[in-house]
Amino acid sequence: MLNTGTIVRIGKGSVALLHGSGSVASLGQICPSAGSPSQFWSPAGSIGGQIRSSEASQSHLCPNSFRTLTQYRSFTSSITSSSHSNPLGLPNFKPANTNLGVKRSLSRVKHILLVSSCKGGVGKSTVSTNLAIALRNLGLSVGLLDADIFGPSIPKLMNLHGEPRISQQGKLIPLQNYGVQTMSMGYLIPNEDSPIVWRGLMLQKALQQLLFDVEWNDLDVLVIDLPPGTGDVQITIGQMLKVSGAIIVSTSQDLALIDVKKGISMFEKVKIPIYGLVENMSVFVCPNCHHEEHLFGKDGVLKEAERLGIDYLGSIPLNREICSKSDEGFPIALSGKDGLGRYYYEIAEGVTRHLRGEGEREK
Hints:
Elements: E1 7-11, E2 14-19, E3 30-32, E4 38-41, E5 59-61, E6 109-116, H1 124-137, E7 142-146, H2 154-157, E8 175-177, E9 180-184, H3 200-212, E10 219-225, H4 232-240, E11 245-250, H5 254-269, E12 274-285, E13 292-293, H6 300-308, E14 312-318, H7 320-327, H8 342-355
Parallel strand pairs: 6-10, 6-11, 7-9, 7-10, 11-12, 12-14
Antiparallel strand pairs: 1-2, 1-4, 3-5, 8-9, 12-13
Keywords: ATP-binding, Iron, Iron-sulfur, Metal-binding, Nucleotide-binding
Pfam families: ParA
Family: Belongs to the Mrp/NBP35 ATP-binding proteins family.
């Protein structure tokens, strides 16, 4: 544990405590970059867990050095956790107000946008990530919260890893990349292969902590990437948060559209405005002959939006480059409004119209 004001010198395979108090005996092996005999590192507050490479700007940790300091946060990805009220093990934890009759705002967050899919496997997380980046590049300050506790995708899509720091108020500090602040359960588990084995109560409490115990920094909009379906996460958010609106991602396949109708009904019951529908994987264009094939049906999402009187925010093709860039942690929206990125900017512009109250219809 290193206390406030502590400064350590990171040398080749060694650590020296220069100022402050604490123990660095268990820090592990340090690997300075070439041409850098030593670096100085000073935590912003009393922090445990790991020393992140971003804070020692010209040095990096060996892979085996992660989690070598005494853990500041006791996290148990198991139903055997002794603290169901604090599953993330946050210090100075105070349970959130669980009065389901009172919806709460998030501190320093103007708008909350939910991205839902109802049916799994339709590319919702890819849409959430690219939408967040597009909104950021349109001039908004944006956060991205991964609410898929059991299957977090945002760390991979945003090319982020490592455990978040803890603020002096005992809250999680978001990890940031591409100008977007992010938080995900994927940052809090020991490694990406570790399963979360929780029943409903633990899931609900962990979600509440991700909602109310993250120190966001002045956001115009927080994009929340929901898990598929209409289960505990959706109900908890709908009952506890003041949400500006939601968009629903789907393919035109009949099986997916059946679940879209269920999702729309759920949002109506918890009085969350529906900004519109997004059609993903709308068409595949052969890179050789340029033949267009509508693998999941044609215009199903558009027709459903028209039938329900909901905005059709746009469509995104099924494209190899979108997939590969997502896997690389370089979302295609980073390429700008030209090329394949334009589809996400069209959706982002539709969302901003709704945030300003200019949408065609808010249910």
